Amino acid sequence: MLGRLRFCERLRFQVDLSYVEFLLRVKQAEEHAKLNGIWDAPHPWLNLFVSARDVAAFDRTVFKKILKRGVGGPMLVYPMLRNKWDDRTSVVLPEGEIFYLVALLRFNPSFPKGPAVEELVAQNQEIICCCRDNAFDFKLYLPHYTSQHEWKHHFGNQWSRFVDRKASFDPMAILAPGQNIFSRNPPS
Questions:
Q1: Distance (Å, rounded) from C-alpha 72 to C-alpha 105?
Q2: CA dist., res. 53 & res. 7, Å (int)
Q3: Could you read off the pLDDT of 108-137 as tens digits, one per residue?
Q4: Contact 114/41 with Cβ under 8 angstroms?
Q5: 85, 93 in Cβ contact below 8 A?
């Protein structure tokens, strides 16, 4: 099964879990964080899709430099196949058949015991800038953009399809402007 992924054998980490244990893996981390009193602290998670083409460079620049001291929680990296995703959804994926979900799940104590939330958010932004500066083929999963221009860039050539769907399924912009994608149109 792993052969098609063309991964680096020395980077392989494997844990055998039941299906239910796999589904509950973040729940277990949440329970552990609650026991340690850090669940209520801000934990700005970052989730990206990184193309297989760029994952080794991502490792060198992000994991080994920016995140060399970790993130205070799990750093998950899952290989994925594009053909397993339903292309009728609005999710935007990197190019290529193989890409990786990179999830940085921060569980840090509140400041002053842990880093200030502003530092963690700034580090997330540094990672995103590093990906852009190095022209990595990546997409944010569950992004937070503040302008329509950023959203257009995120959707790329899928932007017009997204706009058409918005017009079809939310013509009165009831679900706007919360994500700063569309402005609310006054009813006519």
A1: 8
A2: 11
A3: 888 888 899 999 999 999 999 999 999 999
A4: yes
A5: yes
pLDDT at 54: 97
Structure tokens at 62: 């992000």
Distances (CA, A) of 119 to 10, 78, 104, 111, 153: 32, 26, 15, 10, 26
SS3 for 168? helix
Under a CB-based contact definition with an 8 Å cutoff, are residues 124 and 62 in contact?
no
Concatenated DSSP letters of 53-87? GGHHHHIIIIIIIITTT--SS-EEEEEEEGGGS-T
pLDDT tier, 8 (very low <50, low <70, confident <90, very high otherwise):
low
Q: Which two tokens stand for residue 122?
A: 């700034």
* Closest to 50 in 3D by CA, of 76, 70, 73, 69: 76
Q: Is 62 exposed, middle or buried (0-12, 13-18, 19+ CB in 10 A)?
A: buried
- pLDDT classification of 4: cutoffs 50, 70, 90: low
The angle, 0 to 180 degrees and rounded to 10, between the axes of the packed helices 159-169 and 148-155 is: 120
